[in-house]
Write a structure and sequence with these properties.
heterodimer, A: 268 residues, mainly alpha, 11 helices, extended, B: 264 residues, alpha/beta, Rossmann fold, 6-stranded mixed sheet, 4-stranded antiparallel sheet
């Protein structure tokens, strides 16, 4: 292979003074992709093993959500809220703050939406709905912050959810991370090469989106071939060897208690 | 005269809870060619990101051309653009660096932003295409090129901005031996022309040709050696200690002997 001489401009330094340009869009994109990747990565590093069996946790969280949505008893909602706040007090401070931020934010938004009802004097519905929303968001927050996503997907297998659905969920999480990393690096490259005034910012972003699409297509094809080579026939078995402990039985009793309370307050 | 270009002092950096740079002290002079070596995940790429102003240290100081580079300064668009023009970064995965529709546009991306006239841009692009021997790729789509061609286009796209420092993250990865050899010769030529080169690499066979000085990271993300590359390569015990090489025994004919290999 031939190599030519280094051109003269490359041996001298450019006397370049950049012009100001708005690149908030790139910076914000970098930040948002980084947040998603960090969230997925943190799940992997999470040392906190779930206290109770994940299948039970997923099942009873959905039961609790169902009970909350159909109950007409304010006392029941308050009892659930007190229980959820006690659970919150047991988890680590970082997750606690994140869950509370989310639940309080959504509750506040709901309260604003419900303002006209207060003005019309319908206080009961307003307080009831906002309390229900707080409990719902908090319970989902506790589930997602104290359980790893791959544990949740494997728990779904116990509920006879088709393997192909769980496979798609698992692959989605994997590709969110892989493509997220790729996007992040492409945005970094764009930022590093944006050394002046870029008149075609959106063209560059479209280029990044196109390149990610092509690479994701290639990754999907490679994965399909790899699965075929490994004898994939559409079955996606998940082996979960974890057994029930005494805490799990306690958890079952407590949740049955909630179901009894639901019917008790429904009768009053 | 020796001019200190990059100075990194007592630098620490962490990603969430995991430490990536542990008390890093390093200075690089203008026109030097330096290699960063270490096992996977030891912090080489993080240090390269720090030098390029993608991240800023949690603790410690980073100076470029006697100017302190801080998070606050990097938020200033003009300042960070000038830093990015002076320090060019070639990513490990060339695909992440190529986002334009043709090779020509890819290489012209930097010079066009620098406010050059279209004739100047064309001249620069042509010089870069000639220099990297990829003139025939001018109108091709970067995505459809081979690994070696993509790497050449990625280097050309950075060179066209005429950076003072060229930072390369694992430039030999995924290249065939002929292209690797070509790249070593090319980088040496750039270095002789006055460019400062910082290369992270695992390639123990070519590192002594790439750089006269090497910095070795251990698995605690700290620098454990900063010496001449030849000397470092002879210190097999140290290379073994940082898990960069392994020692094994095998036979060639009837003769038993041992030699080291790297963990690529």
């Amino acid at each position: 292979m031939k190599q030519l001489d280094i051109p003269e401009w490359l041996t001298d330094n450019d006397n370049y003074i950049p012009k100001a340009d708005k690149d908030t869009f790139i910076n914000k994109s970098i930040l948002s992709v980084f947040k998603v990747i960090s969230r997925i990565k943190m799940q992997d590093f999470s040392q906190s093993q779930s206290f109770v069996h994940v299948s039970l946790k997923v099942f009873f969280t959905f039961v609790l959500l169902l009970l909350l949505s159909i109950t007409r008893s304010f006392v029941f909602v308050i009892i659930v809220n007190v229980y959820l706040l006690s659970v919150l007090s047991l988890i680590n401070a970082e997750s606690l703050v994140k869950i509370l931020k989310m639940s309080l934010g959504v509750t506040l938004f709901t309260a604003i939406i419900m303002l006209p009802a207060i003005l019309w004097g319908n206080y009961y519905s307003c307080v009831m709905i906002t309390s229900k929303i707080f409990a719902t968001v908090t319970s989902i927050g506790i589930l997602s912050h104290t359980t790893r996503w791959n544990d949740i997907t494997s728990a779904l297998r116990r509920f006879r959810i088709p393997g192909i659905f769980i496979l798609i969920l698992d692959i989605t999480i994997k590709y969110m991370y892989l493509l997220g990393n790729l996007t992040l690096n492409m945005l970094y490259a764009l930022k590093l090469r944006s050394v002046g005034k870029n008149k075609n910012k959106y063209t560059s972003m479209a280029g990044i989106a196109g390149s990610i699409f092509l690479q994701s297509k290639e990754m999907a094809e490679d994965m399909y071939h790899a699965m075929e080579c490994r004898g994939f026939t559409g079955e996606y078995p998940i082996y979960n060897k974890s057994k029930f402990k005494w805490v799990d039985y306690l958890y079952i009793i407590m949740n049955i208690g909630f179901i009894i309370l639901f019917f008790y307050f429904a009768k009053i | 005269m020796v001019i200190r270009m990059i100075e990194i002092k007592d630098v620490y950096f962490s990603y969430s809870d995991s430490l990536a740079l542990n008390n890093i002290n390093l200075s690089i002079n203008k026109g030097e060619a330096i290699a960063l070596m270490g096992a996977n995940g030891c912090g080489k790429s993080t240090l390269l990101k720090l030098i390029n102003g993608i991240i800023s240290p949690d603790k410690g100081h980073f100076r470029f051309n006697d100017e302190e580079i801080t998070y606050k300064k990097l938020q200033d668009s003009k300042f960070s653009k000038l830093l990015h023009q002076k320090i060019g970064f070639v990513f490990q995965n060339s695909d992440t660096q190529l986002f334009c529709s043709t090779v020509f546009d890819e290489i012209a991306f930097g010079p066009r932003q620098m406010g050059m006239s279209e004739s100047e841009v064309e001249e620069r692009v042509k010089d870069c295409l000639d220099l990297l021997n990829i003139l025939e790729l001018k109108n091709r789509t970067p995505y459809h090129l081979s690994g070696g061609e993509k790497r050449k286009v990625a280097i050309a796209s950075v060179l066209s901005m005429n950076p003072e420092v060229l930072v390369l993250d694992e430039p030999m990865n995924g290249l065939d031996p002929k292209t690797q050899r070509w790249l070593v010769d090319f980088l040496n030529k750039l270095n002789k022309a006055g460019k400062t080169l910082i290369t992270s690499t695992h390639n123990l066979e070519l590192v002594h040709e790439l750089s006269s000085r090497s910095v070795l990271f251990d698995e605690n993300h700290a620098i454990v050696a900063d010496m001449k590359t030849e000397e470092l390569l002879e210190n097999i015990e140290l290379l073994k200690k940082v898990n960069l090489v392994d020692q094994y025994y095998h036979y060639h004919g009837n003769k038993e002997h041992r030699h080291f290999h790297d963990h690529n």
